[in-house]
Design goal:
This protein is of the alpha/beta class. It has 14 helices and 9 strands. Helix 5 crosses helix 7 and helix 13 (294-301) crosses helix 14 (305-314). The protein starts with 11 loop residues before the first helix and ends in a 6-residue tail after the last helix.
Length: 320
């Protein structure tokens, strides 16, 4: 069974990434997954765990940014009864809960420095020290970590320990943003539309070619998560229909217009235009600029001289 089939796409960057992940998964090495928010870091971590020798053991996940700073140390390493206000009983931490298995530390860039030191101790020795205890305990846990920020920048600013970074970064795997894997968008769209059709018992819609072209040109600040949410919304609202450009949210249409203007230098007005009038006006401007020289005017307009003469005749131009 290919546990990495959950990673949708065929771009060369993704193929290379998956090959590295499969090799790393077969070992017990510590892995650091890098990538913007919404690129699928937890999906990749889950695939690595399922393909690893610890596949049948516990897989415990925690988002390091989701807990208050004062609780994360206790959450990870446990605490002794009475160690702090509200600690009415001793409690084991997630490292103990994951003993024999894998612990996934998402957004590890959010860990306080004091907790980073204790994590480094675990990675070096396998030992964990609960809050309020003087005796440590040992566990056998594989660590997969993920970050959505540049840890090197955090090291420079004193927010992240350099020695911990080196211990985590044994096998780095970087997920590219969706904007850099535009060739995967169509595969992802088909996957999500099928998924939501099954989930909601509806007929899946289809994206028209122009609409897909707009999706591929979009910057995707929310990455795959944003694409997934868009597909779910349109699956429900436009079930069984063809999704055209005008059905896309305004930010996609604005982006498509801006993209077109960069290519052509012209933006179609919202109210539309009269193409014949525009063509006649452009010919008139070219003739004015060249003082009536038809060969130079044709060059300015990107036309042959014969084509310009034909269009002048069509619009009723007299000798200039």
């Amino acid at each position: 069974m290919d546990h990495f089939s959950t990673i949708i796409g065929r771009s060369p960057e993704l193929d290379s990434l998956i090959r590295s992940a499969k090799i790393a998964a077969s070992t017990d090495v510590t892995i650091l997954i890098k990538g913007e928010t919404g690129t699928g870091k937890e999906v990749l971590a889950t695939a690595i765990q399922k393909a690893s020798p610890r596949a049948n053991k516990k897989f415990v996940t925690i988002n390091c940014a989701a807990l208050p700073e004062g609780l994360i140390e206790s959450e990870l390493f446990g605490h002794k009864k009475g160690a702090f206000t509200g600690a009415n009983a001793s409690s084991q931490g997630l490292f103990q809960a994951a003993d024999g298995g894998t612990l996934f530390l998402d957004e590890i860039n959010s860990l306080p420095l004091i907790v980073q030191g204790k994590l480094l101790r675990f990675l070096d020795s396998g030992e964990c020290l609960p809050v309020g205890e003087t005796m440590s305990y040992k566990v056998n846990v594989r660590v997969i970590a993920a970050t959505n920020s540049d840890l090197n920048e955090q090291i420079k600013s004193g927010q992240f320990r350099q020695d911990l970074y080196y211990r985590l970064n044994v096998v780095p795997i970087e997920l590219p943003p969706l904007a850099k894997r535009s060739e995967d968008i169509e595969h992802l769209v088909k996957h999500f539309l099928r998924q939501f059709a099954d989930l909601h018992s509806i007929k899946p819609p289809q994206f028209s070619k122009p609409a897909l072209k707009v999706l591929k040109a979009y910057k995707w600040p929310g990455n795959i998560r944003e694409l997934r949410n868009l597909c779910e919304r349109l699956s429900i609202l436009l079930s069984g229909r063809v999704i055209e450009v005008e059905n896309l949210p305004s930010e996609f249409r604005i982006n498509a217009t801006a993209h077109a203007s960069k290519i052509t230098g012209f933006v179609l007005p919202e109210a539309g235009l009269q193409l014949d009038s525009l063509e006649a006006d452009l010919i008139n401007q070219a003739l004015d600029r060249t003082k009536g020289n038809r060969s130079q005017s044709a060059k300015l307009l990107g036309l042959s001289r014969d084509t310009l003469l034909y269009r002048m005749q069509k619009h009723g131009f007299t000798a200039h």
